[in-house]
Every structure is written in C-alpha cells, then in structure tokens.
Amino acid sequence: MESVNSQFRRVTKNKKVFPNDLAVFKTLYLTINYMTKKWTTSIHNWSETMAHFLIKFENRIE
Fold first, then answer.
1. What are the strands, taking DSSP E only, across 1-62?
2. Which residues are CB-neighbours of 13 under 8 A, at least 6 positions away?
3. Tell me, what DSSP letter sits at residue 59?
4. Closest Cα partner for 28 from 43, 39, 13?
C-alpha cells in the first residue's frame, strides 16, 4: 500500500496544477494501469496460504 501511495505522490508531484478533477482521475487511472503491469510476481507459498484460507473461511471461498 505504501508503494502505491508513493507512486501516486510521485506522479502528482511532477505536475503541480491540474486543469480539472477529471485530469487528476485520468492521471491516477493511468498510474494504476502502469503499476498493475509490474505486479506479475508469484506469491511465495501461495498453495499453503490458500489451504489456510480455505480452513479459516470455508463458507466464503469456493
């Protein structure tokens, strides 16, 4: 979460004044798209973690 916030600060810091609110939303939307492309690494021990989630939240996870 902190890395997302820092990325947002970095993007909005470069441009001090936005012409309107829509420009801010577009900038943040494009930033989110850029960041999610880098989120391709697999989670360490995901199968074991998922097994624990299935036990703890059996009614919520299919």
1. none
2. none
3. T
4. 13
Neighbours of 8 (CB within 10 A): 15
Token readout for 25 is 């939303």
pLDDT in tens, 6-51: 888 888 888 878 899 999 999 999 988 888 877 777 778 888 988 8
Written as six digits, the tokens of 47 are: 């199968």
- Among residues 24, 19, 20, 23, the alpha carbon closest in space to that of 9 is found at 24
Cα–Cα–Cα angle for 56, 59, 44, nearest 5°? 45
Reported pTM: 0.55
How many whole angstroms separate alpha carbon 18 and alpha carbon 27?
A: 10
Please state the length of the chain: 62
